[in-house]
Prior knowledge:
- By secondary structure, this protein is α/β, with parallel strands linked by helices.
- It has a single domain (6-246), classed as Rossmann fold (3-Layer(aba) Sandwich), CATH 3.40.50.
- 35% of the residues lie in helices and 25% in strands.
- The chain is built from 9 helices and 10 strands.
- The protein has helices at residues 50-57, 79-82, 102-112, 117-130, 146-158, 176-191, 203-209, 227-234, 239-246, and strands at residues 6-16, 23-34, 39-43, 65-70, 73-74, 86-89, 164-168, 195-199, 212-217, 220-225.
- Helix 4 (117-130) packs across helix 5.
- The chain is globular, with a radius of gyration of 18 Å.
Amino acid sequence: xxxxxxxxxxxxxxxxxxxxxxxxxxxxxxxxxxxxxxxxxxxxxxxxxxxxxxxxxxxxxxxxxxxxxxxxxxxxxxxxxxxxxxxxxxxxxxxxxxxxxxxxxxxxxxxxxxxxxxxxxxxxxxxxxxxxxxxxxxxxxxxxxxxxxxxxxxxxxxxxxxxxxxxxxxxxxxxxxxxxxxxxxxxxxxxxxxxxxxxxxxxxxxxxxxxxxxxxxxxxxxxxxxxxxxxxxxxxxxxxxxxxxxxxxxx
Length: 251
Ligand SMILES: Nc1ncnc2c1ncn2[C@@H]1O[C@H](COP(=O)(O)OP(=O)(O)OP(=O)(O)O)[C@@H](O)[C@H]1O
Ligand SMILES: [Mg+2]
């Protein structure tokens, strides 16, 4: 039997608050199986635990209990096997070198992933085209708009040809045309058998690109279904209505 792209079993993460004795259970016994080639949406209010789940899968955070695998490799005991298989796009300022150009940033990241020489140069130019960055590719990243930086983050996310791409609110800073192109790119990537886990607050986006969505509320998984199955079960017209009827207010 082949391993799924992502598997979690009772995955739990408790954060200890720094200045008090209280704790926050950010993820509470989440069990999830995501197949190869699936576009899987993570939906839930602010503080639901979506980013925590992504951090656990990307090996930057340790689970408190339970376990998780990426393509059959345990994220705690086999981090060396997991890291080349995944790519994370959190966005914001982190991970980009502002004094380097987009092209230089991408070449740097290619080298880190072991992609070198002509292969790297070709892939970098393809990504600059795909994310509409060619015109400004030689300019320093510190002169870019938020949306351009976000597009560069996405290009960086693809440079290592990951099996599993973790996207945390990737269309946040994008204009409508760029967001549409990103959705098309996500669909193309999934058609190549790659798996995409995308956290989003955009229900329209989730409804259109996700094969299945998981609803998380206060760290707990409350539903994992296709958008169509979910709206049918809840007997509402749209995914947004289903979300609003199943998920409580944000914490
Ligand atoms: N480093 C941390 N220390 C303590 N608590 C944390 C830490 N990181 C996250 N939390 C808490 O864990 C819970 C889940 O946060 P998380 O960032 O995973 O939510 P999210 O679903 O990604 O929310 P958003 O939609 O706002 O991005 C929240 O209550 C948050 O305050
Ligand atoms: Mg988040």
